[in-house]
Amino acid sequence: MSSTTTTTAPAPASTLNLQTSTGRKMTFDGTDPVYGDWRDDLLRDGYAVIKGAVPRDRAEGYADKMFALLESFGLGYDRHDPSTVHPDKLPVVNEKGMLLNYAAAHEDFVWGVRGEPGVYEAFEKVYDTKDLLVSFDAINYGFANREHLPENKPWPHQDQDPEKPGFRCLQGLVNLQPSGPDDGGLIVCKGGHQLSEQFHRDMADEERIPAWTPEWYGFTERGMKYLADAGLEWIKPTADPGDLIVWDSRTPHYNVPTRTKQDRLAIYTCYMPVACATQEDLLRKKDAYERRVGTTHWPNARHTGWNEAKRDGKPDYVVRTRPLNDAVLSERVFKLTGIPYIREDVQIPIAGM
């Protein structure tokens, strides 16, 4: 099944120093200059599409491996037969299209996307540092045939605690299939990030939709009316295979099912500066990496997942705790795990270690 992961040996932690800032970090507070590229779109709209972050031929190769991963479970799924898009023939994929378990977050093609220079260099531009952590986030299958699948109902939300305003996180996904205006994929409330702080002041009396983390805020009907009354528009960004879509975590968003016969394939990729993580965070992240479990989109790994899926409320009869194809990481990509930044003198117990 899987091979042993090997990496280029990192430098000793005691010798690693964070890169010196050049003073070009984006602030999102109204003082940013005009950049003359996608960063201007991000500041204005709360999202941006970065064309060709992954060369198209490689994007198509990653898409092929995404389909092959589903077929590898031997449950009957066949990418060429839409009738096999059925819960009994698939590993557990939630109604939003996310494959969260089975060590899928650590498949070689997922790490391949995370290690694409055009992807991580976009985040380097935003944060003005090469010292980044990457999330061990989910991969997404938006099947065109949903006859046997649960309905993907709208779930407008922002991935940021209203009690912690200001820019804190830039989310991203790499698109691997054509995504036109009627195809499935991300939908965003254009400009919603700029209204976020005022929104939460005005809506402070609104009972929150229950969530497992304060870093998720769901928009109620009243909240959606507030956004509409403010003149904000929901936009479905279009993207080609290999395009990177990024959005401010304050921007309201969710994903929509396709209205065509085009499947949607996406790999979520989010990076943030190592400086935003504590040593305890890095140890937790190291534990997640070694156990090949996922995290949320937050790269500091405040929440980690598990590889044992639930099917109809019971432990899945399909068990996979290591990737089908484990990744071989270069030194540059291995640094994104955060492990090389752990100080040698730090020993903090982490659950599961």
UniProtKB/TrEMBL annotation:
* The organism's place on the tree of life at top rank: Eukaryota
Q: Which Pfam families match?
A: PhyH
Q: Where is this region: Disordered?
A: 1-25
Low complexity composition bias: which ranges? 1-15
Question: Which PANTHER family does this entry report, sorted A to Z?
Answer: PHYTANOYL-COA DIOXYGENASE, PHYTANOYL-COA DIOXYGENASE-RELATED-RELATED
Please state what the protein is called: Phytanoyl-CoA dioxygenase
Q: Which organism is it from?
A: Apiospora hydei
